[in-house]
Write a structure and sequence with these properties.
single chain; alpha+beta; Lambda Exonuclease, Chain A; five-stranded mixed β-sheet; two-stranded antiparallel ribbon; 46% helix; 15% strand
């Protein structure tokens, strides 16, 4: 895939922007970036702690369009069987927090981050994009080692049980973009990759 927006180097550029820390030197973390990140973390905490009606009732959304039809049917017909455990609630929380950190890191590396949590719609199906980076739709994912490896090795297209590619395709369709992707944070190691 050819990128004209600099996303092919985003991980290297983020890592390069953090190198001074390893040498005991400060990095260029502006007050504006700090305030934005603190605001994003606050929004993530509020959103996480107060489930909306959207989360209580089944609906086809961009975040589930790629899941198997049978799974969607069961989610619709047996909503009480799909209760989320407290430990998964904690995982969702740090996923939201890591998303805010990933966007802060992109800004530190001089990428333009816009349209955070913008609502989009395609054929009546709604969703919220995580952001655009340099004008392209980017979905932030936090992943276990196994899932991270799928993104890093480029095999997610062969094994995508959560329908991530369909979700991204819907977002790109709504925004008229075609060179976006996933900025993935490993929950285990802190590594980043872009797919």
């Amino acid at each position: 895939m050819s990128y004209s927006n600099g996303l092919e180097n985003i991980v290297d550029n983020i890592y390069k922007s953090l190198e001074p820390l390893s040498q005991g030197n400060p990095i260029a973390l502006s007050d504006e970036n700090i305030e934005r990140t603190v605001s994003d973390i606050k929004e993530a905490l509020v959103h996480w702690s107060r489930p909306s009606e959207r989360n209580k009732n089944f609906a086809l959304r961009m975040s589930n369009v790629g899941r198997p039809a049978r799974q969607l049917w069961f989610e619709n017909k047996n909503p009480t069987e799909n209760n989320i455990t407290p430990s998964n609630q904690i995982r969702f929380l740090y996923g939201h927090l890591l998303e805010a950190i990933a966007l802060m890191l992109a800004r530190v590396a001089n990428y333009e981050v816009t349209d955070e949590q913008k609502e989009v719609e395609v054929d009546g199906i709604k969703g919220h994009i995580d952001c655009k980076i340099n004008g392209e739709v980017v979905d932030i994912k936090t992943a276990s080692r196994i899932s991270f490896d799928k993104f890093q090795k480029g095999t997610v297209a062969e094994d995508d049980p959560f329908g991530y590619l369909a979700q991204l395709s819907g977002y790109e369709e709504s925004e008229g973009t075609s060179n976006g992707g996933f900025l993935v944070v490993s929950k285990d190691s802190g590594e980043l990759c872009f797919y």
